[in-house]
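Pilot study result, target chain (240 residues):
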Amino acid sequence: MKRISFFSRLLNLIAPQYCYVCGTPLSISEEVLCGVCNMTLPRTGFAACPEDNEMVRMLWGRLYDKEKGTNLAEKATALFRFEPDSQVSRLIYQLKYKYHPEIGELLGRMTAKEQSEDFFQDIDAIVPVPLTPRRQRQRGYNQSLMIAEGVSKVTGIPIAKHVIKRIAFQESQTKKNWWERQTNVEGAFELVQPQAITGKHILVIDDVMTTGSTILSCCETLRQAEGVRFSILTIGFTKL
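Predicted structure:
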C-alpha cells in the first residue's frame, strides 16, 4: 500500500480535490475520479481482444498494405464508451477545454494498466495526434500528449513527439457527420522525421475515436515512412 505523507494529508485538508465527474470530494488516495465513478463509467472491454473488436475493425481496409495484402492497424483499444452528454463526455470536456491536463495523464495511466502486457510488448514508440501550434497555444497543451505521457509512465515506451506535425485545422469534428469528418482532416498532417519511425510499430494516441477519420489521416501520413505498423489507443470510443 502506498504510504501517504503528512504533507499530502495537510494539502488535502486545506485544498480538497473533487471528482471531475460527480463533484464529490476525493479521498486522499484518489485522483481525478472517485471510486464510485471509476467503477461505474462504461468500459469498452476491448482489452480482452485488441486484435479483433469493433474499433480495430473500423480501420480494416482503410489502413491497408495492398502489396502485402495486410491491414496495417494491428491492435486497438479504448478505455470508455463515449456518448454525448454522458459522464465520460464531461470528463473529456474538462480535459480538452477547462485546462485540466492532469486528467489526460491519469486516464493514460488507467488505460495502460487495464491492458494486457501483450498489448504493449512489441510497440516501439508512441505518437500522440498533434494539434496545430495555434490550437495548442490556445489550449495550453495537447490533450493527446498528456494521455501519451500517462501511458509512457506505465509502459516505459518512449514518446516520439516531433515525428509528425499538424499543418491544418479547419473546424472541430464534434458536430460533423461521417463524410464531413473525412474531408475535414484531409492533408492535415505532415511527416517531419520519417527516419525516427522507419520499420517501427507505432502506438497512435488520441482522446476519442468516432469515425476514425483523424487517426486514419494521421496514420496515412506516418506510413510515408517505410515499414511502419500501427496500433491505436484512445480514452473514448463511439460511433455515429
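One observation from the pilot: Confidence is low (pLDDT under 50) at residues 6-12. A full batch analysis is planned for the follow-on phase.
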